[in-house]
């Protein structure tokens, strides 16, 4: 069953890949939204829906096999989040019939699924605190809410690609390139991890943690950064260039540096290929789109996502926390970051009322909001220890 | 100065920008071409009067910009609070100041000194939340009242200038088909659940006005939630205690003023089967809840009446009479009973064994045949204090030590022996007898949190109202279509409080079918020009 | 003009309500101790056994002041103030002040050897199941309650006391 479930996920991955290209073909369409869309677009959205159904199939079969909602570790959560991201896109597509959304949403979905697959994919047993129906209710609602909110990032990116003047350098072009670079760096992380995993690379360090205890850590990438008083135990592996104090997780920092450097390398290869900024290279894709429409899509995704997010990440979260942890709110980092996300989008919705905050500024806010969501989903678990860090 | 008259005859309150009835501009000059209908051009109270200091405070909190500013401050403060762990999450047995300095160095020290280690409990964080609450109350009141009257007083026939300035607008020449066309449009709009008002052949079609109240409903929910949050500071609204209970023990439930007792039948710990045996599957305490009857005299033997048996697990608290007991932690294998035998050191002959209840040891144990063991001193959690004297750290038997006096027929005064775990001292020189450790019985201790929170229902009500409001405001939008004949032209203007594409997609197919001019988005042309100019 | 006046009154009273609610919460949160049994309250009545097995009930001391102390043998500050309490007890016993020292859930052996070591003559009560400790909401020890002749708590003292402190407190509840 688990194997079948994984195959469904692979199938979804390839269907998303195909529909990315189909959406590429569909963006030439310039007709009004309420008129019939082109054959390309129809094919693209059909394949996307098929992909989503397969993805949902993965989710359901895994749920059946493991006996609990597959949202209990990082792999499961990221795949569930990416599924909701596609669902959010499908909803927006039927509201606005804008193909270019798919051209940007699906590659990011692919990136997310690949990223999630790097984490251990085995079914992990549930600790007592997670054994509750609220696990499924809270996590899926939160994932859907954040995914719909994240769609405003897609709209924001499209808006910025279209509206930022690429003929001259500016702060705007710089930050847009930073966004492009972080995508590339994520891709780089996935690639190098897979490469070294293929090589079965392993380097074990013995080191001293902040309690003065000796422990061992296994590196899956060559060590540039070594742990506190680290001693390399595996022979024939690269010695670290520098060692960091115990408070910093050396293996994670090492991975970050690898991703950043290979990301930079990949970025420059792309720059050389295009002979211009990545965002300038992508700009022509957006030329058929109306700015007001993308702005509205961004706003609408926040308007749709905000209530769902509030329900899942705050209200359901509080109900469950009251049952499992005896208090509905405990200032756990994940809780605080959910509050931060909520405050951020509440701010966004209020700023929309002010003159001058629609359009480009809203687009930038959509990008920042996505950053906060990803930070909470991924980095709070990886960096900040808390009650939610079981992944 | 109190009233503003419009040429359509309607009398508007002071401060009005656009006539409530016909929409003609009556206030100060508008520079923008399209009108801003956020608050219907009505007089927002705070913006109108700027007189006393009180008005100034009011105006300050009424501003959306100030509200967003407060949100931003709370957001930044909350972020800072997650840089290092809050004090409640650091180990209990360390001095916080040292912890932050030792683990996070200089930055940690600064973090501690600025009080960020308890940021969310700080007075200034509380004041930020309070400011948000004030802003919610004032900003909502300031807008909802005028908005209500503006929507209530709106007229059907709108001034031409008002129509032309709408974002969605179209103009069609009147022909002989016009009457039929309009009838058709109106019936179509009616099918789409628009409410239609007519006045002299002019129309106003409106739907989902209730969604305009969404923001104020959700703000009301938030205010109730914040009030609930404040109430938990009132003494007695809120109890948070931890009850450690051993297997077989009956204990008063902390925080219930002696009214309830709990006995633990057994604590159970289960792990997953092979391969995952280091993961805990379940831990629970099987308990019986008792209520104490009669007048409560503390310390007296209580008269207990059983209320119920229950299994308390994580995610399955025991609830009774406004309080709840939660399984939060446990300690396995607390020492409970120790068995020693009295033996002759040389011959290893045993004269009998004693079992000591570590929570309440007897003073003396008679072994018969004139053999007897007395306990002279008992240290449940033994250590040597500053003066090198044996002492105890607590009343919990984590490391028990005894001073025994062993009495035998040969030695009726007795031989003294100090016995601790893996350590025996014989103060009177070499003894003939010895207390030989035989075995130990252990018990599990379960930790249950006792919680009472009388504010929960208020928070629940607040949360529910917030959700209703936010859905009402976000998932519906207020749409209006004005149709006016003016001379030989039919003006059609549309307005939505959000989702402009939605209204266009709803109206334009109808207009197209009828042969009337479709609504065009007047901002579109503007922005398109801008971008093309930039390229 | 009437409008303007009602508006002023409305705004002023709304702001006043909000500000006083906030001030009250701040005060409750930051300036009051969160203990259930406080000065001014009626001391909860209790009955406990002393070391001789006699039942001692608080209400029996109506008309006398009671110095109620909670302690444990593991608590060094408690041990320090025991001799002071003992010497003040000798002085104030005849002036109508009683000392009751409630031990928190320890074994008889531990209490007895402690009492013997310090030669304590005032009643030491055993709170085996911590029912009284819980009723008085004791968290840190030593904690002492000064109860006057009417059974009203005059003062709650947490932390160690000097002999002079104790003498002053005895004076406070002397009938």
Automatic annotation (TrEMBL), chain A:
Residues 264-388 form the Cytochrome c assembly protein domain. InterPro entries: Cyt_c_assembly, Cyt_c_biogenesis_CcsA, Cyt_c_biogenesis_CcsA/CcmC. It is found in: Membrane. Pfam families: Cytochrom_C_asm (PF01578). The gene is ccsB. The keyword Transmembrane applies. GO terms for molecular function: heme binding. One of its GO terms (cellular component) is plasma membrane. This is C-type cytochrome biogenesis protein CcsB. It comes from the Bacteria. GO terms for biological process: cytochrome complex assembly. Keywords: Cytochrome c-type biogenesis, Membrane, Transmembrane, Transmembrane helix. Its main location: membrane. It is a multi-pass membrane protein. The chain crosses the membrane at residues 6-28, 40-65, 77-96, 103-123, 135-161, 173-196, 256-274, 297-323, 335-351, 363-387.
TrEMBL record, chain B:
InterPro entries: Cyt_c_bgen_Ccs1/CcsB/ResB (IPR023494), ResB-like_domain (IPR007816). Signal peptide: none annotated. Residues 64-411, 431-507 form the ResB-like domain. One of its GO terms (biological process) is cytochrome complex assembly. Pfam families: ResB. One of its GO terms (cellular component) is membrane. The chain crosses the membrane at residues 57-84, 123-141, 216-234, 456-476. Keywords: Cytochrome c-type biogenesis, Membrane, Transmembrane, Transmembrane helix. The keyword Transmembrane applies. It is a multi-pass membrane protein. It is found in: Membrane. This is Cytochrome C biogenesis protein. It comes from Paenibacillus rhizophilus.
Automatic annotation (TrEMBL), chain C:
It is found in: Cell envelope. Residues 37-175 form the Thioredoxin domain. One of its GO terms (cellular component) is cell envelope. The keyword Transmembrane applies. It comes from Paenibacillus rhizophilus. This is Thiol-disulfide oxidoreductase ResA. GO terms for biological process: cytochrome complex assembly. NCBIfam families: PRK03147.1. CDD domains: TlpA_like_family (cd02966). GO terms for molecular function: antioxidant activity; oxidoreductase activity. It holds the Pfam family AhpC-TSA. Keywords: Cytochrome c-type biogenesis, Disulfide bond, Membrane, Redox-active center, Signal-anchor, Transmembrane, Transmembrane helix.
């Amino acid at each position: 069953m688990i194997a079948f479930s994984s195959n469904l996920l692979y199938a979804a991955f390839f269907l998303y890949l195909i529909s990315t290209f189909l959406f590429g073909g569909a963006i030439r369409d310039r007709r009004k939204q309420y008129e019939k869309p082109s054959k390309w677009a129809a094919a693209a959205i059909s394949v996307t829906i098929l992909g989503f159904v397969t993805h949902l199939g993965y989710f359901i079969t895994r749920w059946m096999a493991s006996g609990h909602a597959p949202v209990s570790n990082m792999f499961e959560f990221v795949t569930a989040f990416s599924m909701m991201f596609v669902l959010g896109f499908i909803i927006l597509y039927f509201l606005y019939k804008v193909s270019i959304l798919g051209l940007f949403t699906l590659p990011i979905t692919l990136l997310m699924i690949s990223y999630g697959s790097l984490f251990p994919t085995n079914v992990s047993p549930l600790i007592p605190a997670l054994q509750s129906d609220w696990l499924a209710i809270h996590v899926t609602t939160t994932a859907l809410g954040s995914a719909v909110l994240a769609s405003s990032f897609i709209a924001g990116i499209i808006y910025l690609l279209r509206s930022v003047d690429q003929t001259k350098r500016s702060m705007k072009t710089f930050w847009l390139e930073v966004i492009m670079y972080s995508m590339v760096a994520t891709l780089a992380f996935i690639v190098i991890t897979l490469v070294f995993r293929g090589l079965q690379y392993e380097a074990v360090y013995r080191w001293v943690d902040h309690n003065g205890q000796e422990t061992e850590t296994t590196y899956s990438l060559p060590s540039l950064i070594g742990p506190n008083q680290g001693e390399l135990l595996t022979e024939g592996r690269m010695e670290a260039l520098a060692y960091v104090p115990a408070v910093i997780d050396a293996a994670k920092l090492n991975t970050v540096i690898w991703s950043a450097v290979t990301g930079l390398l990949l970025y420059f290869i792309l720059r050389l290929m295009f002979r211009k900024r990545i965002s300038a290279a992508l700009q022509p894709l957006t030329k058929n789109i109306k700015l007001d429409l993308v702005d509205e899509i961004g706003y609408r995704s926040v308007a749709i996502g905000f209530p769902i997010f509030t329900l899942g990440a705050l209200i359901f979260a509080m109900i469950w926390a009251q049952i499992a942890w005896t208090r509905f709110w405990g200032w756990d980092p994940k809780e605080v970051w959910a509050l931060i996300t909520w405050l951020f989008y509440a701010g966004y919705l209020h700023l929309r009322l002010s003159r001058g905050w629609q359009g480009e500024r809203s687009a930038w806010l959509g990008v920042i909001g996505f950053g906060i969501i990803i930070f909470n989903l991924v980095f709070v678990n990886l960096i900040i220890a808390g009650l939610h860090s079981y992944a | 100065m109190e009233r503003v008259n419009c040429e359509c005859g309607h009398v508007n309150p002071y401060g009005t920008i656009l006539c409530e009835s016909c929409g003609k501009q009556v206030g100060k000059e508008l520079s923008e071409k399209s009108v801003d209908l956020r608050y219907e051009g009505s007089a927002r109270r705070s913006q109108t009067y700027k007189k006393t200091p009180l008005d100034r405070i009011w105006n300050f909190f009424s501003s959306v910009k100030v509200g967003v500013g407060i949100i931003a401050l709370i957001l930044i403060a909350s972020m800072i609070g997650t840089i290092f762990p809050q004090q409640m999450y650091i180990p209990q047995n360390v001095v916080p100041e040292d912890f932050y300095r030792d683990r996070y160095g200089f930055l940690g020290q600064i973090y501690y000194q600025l009080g960020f280690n308890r940021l969310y409990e700080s007075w200034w964080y509380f004041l930020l939340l309070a400011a948000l609450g004030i802003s919610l109350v004032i900003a909502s009141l300031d807008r909802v009242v005028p908005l209500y009257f503006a929507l209530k007083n709106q007229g059907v026939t709108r001034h031409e200038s008002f129509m032309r300035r709408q974002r969605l607008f179209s103009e069609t020449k009147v022909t002989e088909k016009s009457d039929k066309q309009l009838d058709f449009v109106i019936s179509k709009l009616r099918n789409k659940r628009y409410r239609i008002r007519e006045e002299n052949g002019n129309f106003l079609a409106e739907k989902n006005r209730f969604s305009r109240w969404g923001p104020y409903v959700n703000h009301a929910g938030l205010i109730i939630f914040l009030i609930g949050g404040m109430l938990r500071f009132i003494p007695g609204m809120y109890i948070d205690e931890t009850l450690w209970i051993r297997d077989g023990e009956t204990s008063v439930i902390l925080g219930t003023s002696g009214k309830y007792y709990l006995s633990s039948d057994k604590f159970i710990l289960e792990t997953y089967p092979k391969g995952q045996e280091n993961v805990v599957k379940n831990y629970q305490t099987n308990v019986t809840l008792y209520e104490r009857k009669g007048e409560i005299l503390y310390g007296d033997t209580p008269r207990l009446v059983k209320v119920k048996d229950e299994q308390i697990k994580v995610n399955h608290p025991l609830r009774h009479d406004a309080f709840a007991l939660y399984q939060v932690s446990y300690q396995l294998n607390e020492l409970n009973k120790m068995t020693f035998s009295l033996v002759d050191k040389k011959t290893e002959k045993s004269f009998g064994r004693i079992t000591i209840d570590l929570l309440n040891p007897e003073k003396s144990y008679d072994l018969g045949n004139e053999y007897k063991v007395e306990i002279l001193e008992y240290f449940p959690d033994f250590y040597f204090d500053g003066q090198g004297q044996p002492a105890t750290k607590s009343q919990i038997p984590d490391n028990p030590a005894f001073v025994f006096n062993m009495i035998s027929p040969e030695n009726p005064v007795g031989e003294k022996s100090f016995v601790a775990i893996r350590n025996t001292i014989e103060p009177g020189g070499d003894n003939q007898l010895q207390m030989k450790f035989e075995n130990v019985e252990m018990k599990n201790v379960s930790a249950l949190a006792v919680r009472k929170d009388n504010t929960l229902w208020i928070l629940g009500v607040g949360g529910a109202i917030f959700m209703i409001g936010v859905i009402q405001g976000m998932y519906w939008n207020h749409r209006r279509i004005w149709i006016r004949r003016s001379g030989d032209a039919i003006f059609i203007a549309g307005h939505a409080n959000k989702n402009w594409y939605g209204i266009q997609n709803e109206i334009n197919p109808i207009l197209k079918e009828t042969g009337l001019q479709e609504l065009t988005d007047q901002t579109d042309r503007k922005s398109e020009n801008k971008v093309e100019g930039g390229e | 003009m009437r409008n303007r006046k009602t508006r002023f009154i409305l705004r002023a009273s709304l702001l006043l309500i909000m500000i006083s609610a906030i001030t009250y919460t701040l005060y409750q949160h930051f300036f009051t101790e969160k203990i259930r049994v406080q000065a001014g309250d009626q001391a909860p009545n209790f009955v406990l056994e002393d070391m001789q097995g006699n039942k001692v009930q608080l209400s029996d001391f109506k008309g006398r002041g009671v110095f109620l102390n909670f302690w444990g043998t593991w608590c060094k500050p408690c041990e320090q103030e025991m001799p002071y309490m003992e010497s003040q007890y000798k002085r104030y016993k005849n002036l109508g002040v009683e000392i009751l020292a409630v031990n928190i859930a320890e074994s008889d052996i531990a209490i007895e050897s402690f009492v013997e070591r310090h030669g304590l003559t005032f009643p030491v009560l055993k709170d085996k199941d911590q029912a009284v400790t819980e009723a008085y909401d004791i968290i840190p020890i030593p904690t002492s309650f000064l109860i006057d002749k009417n059974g009203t708590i005059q003062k709650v003292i947490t932390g160690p006391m000097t002999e002079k402190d104790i003498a002053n407190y005895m004076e406070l509840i002397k009938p």
